[in-house]
Fold these 3 entries.
Entry 1:
Amino acid sequence: MTQSQQSSQSTEISVFEEIRRDIAIQTDGSAKVGLGMVFGRGTVGNPVSFGGTTLADNAQKVDQALANVGELQSIWNHSHTQWMWKHLNLSWHAPLKNMRQISAEITRKKGALNEAKWRQIESEVKIRKIEEELAKGKEDLSLDYWREVELTVKLAKLREGMAEGVVVIEGAMKDVLVLNELYEQLKQRVANFSEADIEREETKSHLKRALVQSIRDVRLCGSITKAEQEYIEQIGINPMKLQNLLKSYVEAEAKSDSWDVGGLYEFVDSLTDELVDTYKVDQKRMTLQGFDTDIFEAYSQIDKLAKLPGEELP
């Protein structure tokens, strides 16, 4: 041991020694530095805290509480429950819009997982470099005590951060796997479509949303509100004619004996098909605006996606 290392023994800090011992006993590569190992120790001392006890005692109690409740993170570590995905997040009446929502959610999860992946790799590199420097310094006695303190604290922080990050990573993985299952289920309703097909379906998708929201307006105040009127006009529908029809529907809905929303879906789907396929309200509005009713297929992705098993390539 060098003279500087010998003289440093009087300057050893208890927090560091606790961390060093904690790292030494880990066999799985992780390191958990509890609050009780830090608060109430070192230069701040161990002052009296709430509850008539010390800061160190309260910190240990908090460690126990975090460990006790922390097990719940294995359940609530992701964005939404499966119920929320099905009932709230993928709530469009148009299946293709729900496909779009799944795609958007998967893209976000992919970005988060990729970021976590590279953060994990960077942490692994930092950990290996620190481990090598610590091992070499202990072997040739070249490592200054305070350099060892600095490296060991960094090592503990990196290992603890990686362990904590796994919970979040697993949550994102759950969401991706659930969304994949929902995607496969939704393909039973809409499959084998291209971007051009989606463009052709946009009128019906938006009209269904506009109708549902307008029905809610009529239920609430007896008329279609200004914002929904604008939405309906943009699709190409006479708001007042629609309002009269929706009033009749809402009156019939109030007298219905059914507790489910099957009647709502049937009404919205039927009215949408009638307005678009028979009356061609969207095409008439495009003509009034000076636009061609055809889409630009040359500027759309033409390959068919979301194929069902056994479907032949186009």
Entry 2:
Amino acid sequence: MVSELGGPFSFGFSAFTLIFTATQLIAIGKLVSDEHAPLWAAIQFFLWELPQYLLLVIPMAMLLGVLLSLGRLSGESEITAMKAGGISVLRIVAPLLVVGFIASLIVLVLQEELVPIANDQAAYVREAVIKKLSPFTSNLNFNIPVAGGGSRLTRAASLDPTTQTLLHVTIIEYDKENRFVQIIKSDKAKYVAPTWSFADATIYRFNPDGSLGAISTDPRLRVDIGEAPSEMAKRATLSNPEEMSRAQIKQQLDSGQLSPLQENQFRETYEAKLARPFASFVFALIAVPFGMRPARGGGTSLGFGLAVAIVFVYYVIVTIFGSIGELGGPAAFISAWTPNLLFTAIGLWLLRRASAA
């Protein structure tokens, strides 16, 4: 059964990869013609973008592979012969379901290990090489707790990673009652491990009643703002949770730097990124009863059309429940797993009917 799956799976993998590649080639052409990107940079961007499409291609190829392989076996009465020999339907299709589960684990590993690295490289090529923008000019606002309660909010205009220098920095420090303690302003702050040295800093200290108390300057003020340049540079590129691994999303959720709206979005994506890879198993399961039905012509084209229809319905449901998951709370976990549970229930019901036939 597994060897029978190999050919149709390879066909589906190649076909769906070609479809996604074709759409990317059009985008690459626009980069070269409209934004005058160097051809080598456009090709490099294209190659780094490919790994993320594997997360969609592998489940779709699994679906088409099971449909076509079982369709051929059913059409040539081999399924009927095995059932007549006393082999149950579940035993017949069990190897395909095991392969579907293994494919899900492979997708999960790719999502967590390979795709985030590829997305980081693609973002760098797009911003720094093609658009000629610094990737470290945004998301440089962060907050850390201070001893005795309160917090320290740091805002910077940009980060120069080559000199490890923050430009146009403002630090606002609050006490545990959320009252101003002091404000520090400096044009430059250079990282001198393990903390930061602020050049010609101006310090505004406030009284407990909120009035301005004293103003002073310090040519080399050292302040711990909670992050090293490498951590800032990495975080500055992590604005889209879809391009991050679950570990990176979890780190952002634990940082306390996200707004309530962002936190809901990140939490929904965090749960969804665990559920989505198991689409390979779900697709294998729901493809079994469809593939075992006697085919009346159409062959590969019919299987391909059915696969596209199932994929379309599945991802429409995923999108709908994803929007619900962004409401926050337990809705994120429930909405992430509902499409898989729904399609699994349908697949088991259809498989039971096929077993009884």
Entry 3:
Amino acid sequence: MKRPRKTANLPSSIQRQLNMYALAASAAGVGLLALAPPSEAKIVYTPAHFNLRLGERHGVDLNHDGTPDFDLYWTVDEGVSVLIASGNGRPAGYGVALDRADPGFALAIFRGAKIGPAREFSGYTFFPKMATASRSGSLWGGPWADGGKGVKNRYLGIKFQSKGKPHYGWARVTVTIENPDDYRFTAVLLTGYAYETIPNKPIIAGQTKGTDDSSTGPQDAAQTSPIPDTPQPATLGALALGAPGLSIWRREDSVAATLERN
């Protein structure tokens, strides 16, 4: 038969310390939850090396859901060679960033520029054009032709829908023109594409990972705060320091116990 356990009456100072610790630990736990860092943006990048051929339409699936989000299309129409980035008749919410100075053409965006809601997008079947070349008229048209010089590593701005929400991305394309007097494209090369997984959040052209935002939180201040050299009363602030705060509390506990014994 087990004897009933005797209840030990702790010294009042120890009891006070335990009560303070329980309260502080609870508050510190809530504080740590409040300081949890927000979820970061995630960029999904797909490297590529695809040479588009004359007469070919190539669908690009940014989010790998099995459905292309826009098309690259190189064709000849009434003697004019035309390079097109199109939504191919997709529903509203899909499109390519337009050149506002000449809305018939798609922007040839430089690396580092922002692609997001502030831009204008269009996704018609044969629109917008990236570049045109007309032998009969001896004319180059569009920013991707650049007057017959072509462009290297420029970016298409892309808007598409995923689960009913808008997302933004980019596709990196090089247009090569070896002989500007010939008025035709030599090569069209797709070298990669990416999109931002957070709905309606802009993406930076050329960005392949992480987020463009940087911030410092309260945890930075806590890591650089000096730890007191002398024992201090157990407080919420001391416990929020983690292991150093606990050592402060333990020193106080040890001192209090010694005083009680004496």
